[in-house]
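Appendix B, record 7
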Amino acid sequence: MIATHNSGKLAEMRELLAPYGIDATSAGELGLKEPDETGLSFRDNARIKAEAAAKATGLPAFADDSGLAVDALGGAPGIHSARWAGPNKDFRGAMQTIEDKLHERGATAPDARKAHFVSALCVAWPDGHVEEFEARVDGTLVWPPRGKGLSHRARAFVKLAEACLG
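Structure tokens (predicted):
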């Protein structure tokens, strides 16, 4: 069970699980309610989602919480990254907001534009056992956004796979 309603996360997580012969359904596909993400960290929110899905389905559940933390913005948007994207998940618009806020603060030089992506992954079993993993990708924000490569979620998954999937 992948504890997400986000089709982009679902596609990436399925791709990460496929080499291990794991075919998973999602919370969205099963019509599960999204739990309130009341945690104070990415790790807390991943655990909330995984434990809720495991409890609701009786299946092991895999959840992610991730986002961008910008040093010049005091770590914002942080755990609120998805909220900055709004109900339509307009992440390009959220990046524009970040760019505007950086300009308001005079953060135009590369050394003033440090940021990092964080991904926390959690696997929760129906018996209450939980495994948690986190990865971070440090960098400098550029405008317009660009970049490809191993995502912050994929980096955290490597840790999870080593510990849980052999």
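Remarks on this record: The first helix runs from residue 7 to 17. Strands lie at 61-70, 114-124, 130-140.
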